[in-house]
Design a protein that fits this description.
mainly beta
Length: about 110
């Protein structure tokens, strides 16, 4: 199983980014998947999750700004991030929690 994140870059506050996670060797359909992030000096936190039934949940800090989605045909997980704030700066990870698989992370920097 391999999860490969992409889409992270440096943006100005108020901007948008779309992160993608290509999942190899593990079908995303019907699986629970999560986007985590870790900022320097802070604990890792879950920011958005999609459950086995397609239901979604978000951390309070990103509610209304971030949207998690999955593309079953492409076997990918995405995170649309709008109205970005400097406090969103972190490395973002795609995670298949049920099998403990993590991607390598993608850096998002908001200034």
């Amino acid at each position: 199983v391999q999860l490969v994140e992409s889409g992270g870059e440096s943006v100005q506050a108020g901007g948008s980014l779309r992160l993608s996670c290509a999942v190899h060797g593990y079908a995303v359909l019907g699986k629970a998947l999560t986007w985590f992030r870790q900022a320097p000096g802070k604990e890792r936190e879950a920011v958005a999750a999609i459950d086995h039934f397609g239901g979604t949940s978000y951390a309070e800090s990103v509610e209304g700004r971030f949207t998690i989605s999955q593309d079953n045909a492409g076997n990918t997980l995405s995170l649309q991030m709008n109205s970005l704030k400097p406090e969103d700066t972190a490395v973002y990870y795609c995670v298949a929690r049920s099998i403990g698989a993590w991607g390598q992370g993608t850096q998002v920097t908001v200034s």
